[in-house]
Structure formats: structure tokens, C-alpha cells
Amino acid sequence: MWNEILSKMIQFKKLFYLCGFLLISIRAHAENIYELDFTNATGDVKNWFEANNWELREEIEEMNLRFEDGKLVIEPKKDELGVMMRDFDEKNYLLGVNKVRIEWGVDQYPLGADWSGPTEKTRNTREAISFMIFFGDTKLDSGFFLAPDLPYFISFFLGKNEKPDKVYLGNYWQEGGRYLCIPCDGSSAKTYITEIDLSAKFYELFGKKPEPITALGIEVDVQKTLLANGRHSKAFIKRVELF
To answer: Which end of the chain is less crowded, N or C, counting CB atoms within 10 A of the terminal residue's CB?
Structure first.
């Protein structure tokens, strides 16, 4: 009798652990709302992005884009601005995103980039790579008539001389744009993991709950920086995940 009871208890425990494992697996899968994964990407970069509903803008196509060793490499040889954008239709807005995770790094920082100084003065706010997340569709004043108005956004970037505990403002979009350098220790040829509680960070920066994510962007801005090693910068990105 006791052997039968013990056997049933063991079977119940196995069933309990199995159900728990399946529940965790399903939950983890459901929480991954959007992903950009370059670890197995091959072929022409422009075609790859367009197939995934991204658009290449400005001078990004001239920045020696390539898939290499499981990552997207961006290596501009001229002091230009380049952007890759994914604008979502309203029915495809990303809802309930709480966390962002980015695997990326910089092999060469743009020489002459400088985010320091008072925000009311023009600074050389440049970056080898940044990942931008746009919230809502209400466009806020850019502060300059030639710069387009944009929704709220947070731009994560990797800098050489910047500080991880500082919130940076650009020369424009100071009402709705914030720039964060995380983890930001200035090292090169190193893969960083940038992982942020996005909803909490948005509330901390803007004092309100985040609206749905309406667009994503990858930007490289090396304007007014100096040439070194035959290039203005070199950066890479492996994967971006939104949970």
C-alpha cells in the first residue's frame, strides 16, 4: 500500500515539474515581442532589411554595411549620417514592451564626438551606433525648423567619453528625445549587453507611462568627426530583443 502511494506521489511530482517547465517555456516565448537577430544573417544587407520591412535612409548605404561573423557591421569612410528605420502601421504597434536587450559593440569610436557641455549650446553629439525607440504618434517640436518633429524617443548609444549615469540631450528634439549611453565604459572590440527596464526608464525620463512603440531605428552619425585608420568609426550589432 505504501509503495503504491509513494509511486503516485513521485508521478504527481514529475507531472508538476513538467507542467511548470512548459508554463515557463510558453511564457518566455510569449514575452519576446520583437526581435532583430543578425547572428545568422547573410547576403545583401539592404535586401535583408527591406525583406523585414525596414527602410534605409540618408547615407547609411554608403557606410560599408555587411554581415560578418554573426553581426551587422557598419564602417563609414565619410563623415555622414545614416539611419535604418522600421515604422509600424497602427495595427502593428508594439504593446506592452517592458524591457529591451541589445548585444553590440564598437571597434572604433568617432574621433571628435563630444556630448559634454551645456545643452543650450551646439555640441558635436555623434555616435558610432545608436538604437532608437519611438513611443506614440504625437510629434513634438524639434526645436529647429529644418529638423522634423518627432514623437517621444529614447536613443541608446555607445560612447567613449560619456557617462552611464547621465541623461543626455541632443542639439534638437530636447522636448521628447533622451540619449543614454549604457553600459558606456569606453572599451572597444568588446560585446556589450545593454539591458533596460524600458517602461520604468520612460517613466523616469518623462514622468508618464510609455505609449505604444511606433517605430525603431538604428542610427550612425559621424558628421564633423575626424578620419582615423581610413574610417570615421566602426561598430557592430548582433541582436536586439524587446520583451
So the answer is: N
